[in-house]
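In this section we walk through a basic example: taking a raw amino acid sequence and producing a predicted 3D structure, encoded as discrete structure tokens. The instruction is simple. Fold the sequence below.
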Amino acid sequence: MSTMNTSAVSGIDGHGDSLWLKAARKFKRDRVGMWALFGVFIYAVIALGVVFGFWGGAWADVTGPKWAPVSAEYWFGTNIIGQDIFARALYSTRTAFEVGLLVAIGATALGAVFGAVAGFFSGTWIDEIIIWVMGVLDSVPFILLVAAIAYSLGGSPWAMHIAMIATFWIGTARLVRGEVIKLKTLEYVEAAHAIGLGKVKIIFRHILPNTFHILLVQATISFVAAIKSEVILSFLGLGVKDGMSWGLMISESTFEVLAGFFNNFIAASVLMFGLVMAFNMFSDALQDALDPRSVK
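The resulting token sequence is shown next.
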């Protein structure tokens, strides 16, 4: 394997700067991206605080009167049975991160494997089968797929996660497949073949790591999609079973809004909007920074 080929794949130029270092410099110059990253960090701190029991632990406790107004004791007021809306909103942030991270990691990993295999064996029956599976899953409406999986798993709380992973990996697989088709023609891959390396080792040790910039961006996109999907599914009763989420808060607020009480709806909607918007802007900035055509 020549030094020139290795440098081309790893993104190292004549000055010794890698694609990642140049991308990091470009991202730091993106003020919107940095502010978005800071916003995501704040939400992550809130979620970790809930995990370690610093706040949000009393989300299910009935501690106040019905529909208490915003006050120093109840920052977002209370719901119809006297539960603290602020505590429930904080706990829902943990739920959003749990669902987002699990689905993003699962879908990205699955898409990476299937996309790499399909790209490496492009034009063969293996590639055709994977493309056919992607087409079949892509043609099934998402809500129907979740309902079918939930029914088959006996109402398992993991049905939502499995359904998301089973559909979100498709976009990642398509992108990785296209990238692998280009990478497998490079000289360093041909050299790996020449020295007798197995196909599995070539795919996972020499080709797939060079698609990491695609996988990173796709993971952030899947994270946002998972949060939005969880809210919709929980609102419809197909999502979170044990715990609290913004979708469940919005669902229970439908009865309160008719009575003129909007605190529950506003708290869940504003926090969800803030996280989704921040992560969307972070994802866009990250994609721009990692674009090899624009990295300088």
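Looking at the output, two observations stand out. The chain has one domain: 21-52+89-290. The domain at 21-52+89-290 is CATH 1.10.3720.10 (MetI-like fold). In the next section we compare this with other chains.
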